[in-house]
Every structure is written in C-alpha cells, then in structure tokens.
Design goal:
GO terms for molecular function: DNA binding; DNA-binding transcription factor activity. This is FadR family transcriptional regulator. Keywords: DNA-binding, Transcription, Transcription regulation. This protein is 65% helix and 3% strand. By secondary structure, the protein is mainly alpha-helical. The chain folds into 2 domains: 68 residues, Arc Repressor Mutant, subunit A, CATH 1.10.10.10; 153 residues, GntR ligand-binding domain-like (Four Helix Bundle (Hemerythrin (Met), subunit A), Up-down Bundle), CATH 1.20.120. Strands 1-2 form a two-stranded antiparallel ribbon. Strand 1 and strand 2 form a beta hairpin. It is elongated. It starts with 7 loop residues before the first helix and ends with a helix. About 5% of the residues have low confidence.
Amino acid sequence: MPVKKTKMSQQILEQLKKMIQEGTLPPKSKLPSENELAKMFGVSRAPVREAISVLVASGLVESRQGGGNYVNEVLLVNLLDSVTLEMVTVDEVYDLLEMRTIVETEASALAATRHSDEELKAIKAALDKFSETIHDEREIGDEADFLFHKEIVSASKNTFIIQTIHNLRELYRQTLNFSLKKNLGLKRKREQVYQEHLFIYEAIRAKDPEAAAFHMKHHLTNARIKLGDTRVKPIKLIQEDE
C-alpha cells in the first residue's frame, strides 16, 4: 500500500492509526519493524520512524527498550481524556515542546521569586526522586521528571500557567516517557538530565530568575533536539564558554 510522497510521515501515521482502529494491529500486538513498514508503504525509514514517534507520544503505542513497538490496549475510561487520544502530527509534538519551552522558562523565573519554603522542599523532593532513577536501568523516570516540572509550575503561582500544564498533563507525560526512554542504558545521558534539573533547582533556590529561566530553556531545548526538532539549536552553558 504505497503512499504519496507529500507529508509521508502524516500519511503513514493515518494508515497505522486505521490499522489499529480496525484491528489489523490489535492491542498488545507487535508492530512490524521499521524496515518492514518502510517496504510496505514504499518509503524510507525516516517517515516511518516519525509516525511511530507520534503514536508513542500519543499513548497508542509502547516502545520497549530492545523489544520493538507494541500496540497499547485503549480502555474506555481513557476516552474521558481527549488529549490522551488526540491524534497529533509530528509537527504538533514539536509545537507542544516549543510551547513548554516558552511557558516553563517563564514559570521557572516566577518560581525563583515567588516560591515558598514548602514549595522549594517539594521541588527538591522531586529532584531527589528523579536522582534515584539514574542508577536503575529499568526505571524510565518519567513520573519523577513530570513531578519536578509540575512542582516548579505550581511555585510560579500563576493560575493560568498551572491550569495549562494540568490540561496537557497526559500528553506531556507521554512525551516525557518517550524522550527519557532514549536514555535507558545510557548512564551519562541520564546523569546529564539530572544535572540540568539540578541547575534549575539551584537557581530557584538562589532566587535568581534569570538563571532559572536560562537553565530551564537549556534543558527543554536539549529535549527538543533529542526528539528531532531541527528548528532549534543547542544552547551552550555558561561554564562551557569559560
């Protein structure tokens, strides 16, 4: 079933969604390999990989380290959360991360000047919880990562920022899950993410809004690059220029 060359990843995504919805790829079944799908659709592996990335980010497919991609079982209760089942495009995933960068960069600056002692303790507790996942190669760490960002947003004390992140929480967590899975078995990469979190926390603790905003932007930019967003360029840490 070859597809047209325009917007190949989106067309492949629609084909795969249809196969899942119609039961050709039933729940818990393993997706064909990227090579097999590329041959099936008459395209290269790149658009296939992009389409699978969106399915993983939207929660319809689970990527297992070293074990391929599997169709998730969608329960009726999940239909209550439209964002969970929203079929997003590759560009929309990148736009979500771009929005997060804009919102959370400012939220970090606000948290640096507005946080209470209790909120700072909550951010530190989330940071410590994430640090515990570094040495466990089976632990993805997405829950602790989400909690860290959530506590910072809460400390911004801006109700609209807080509600925006809350409304997107499921898609947000699924994107984190997909991003962090790329670090499984790569201790240095996992330590790098923790270090980025630590820089953010230290800036908030020091009540330095400029540093908090810089380190949050650096952290989320790295996440965007890791997921393939070519619209952004790496941001160098201040230490790297010294």
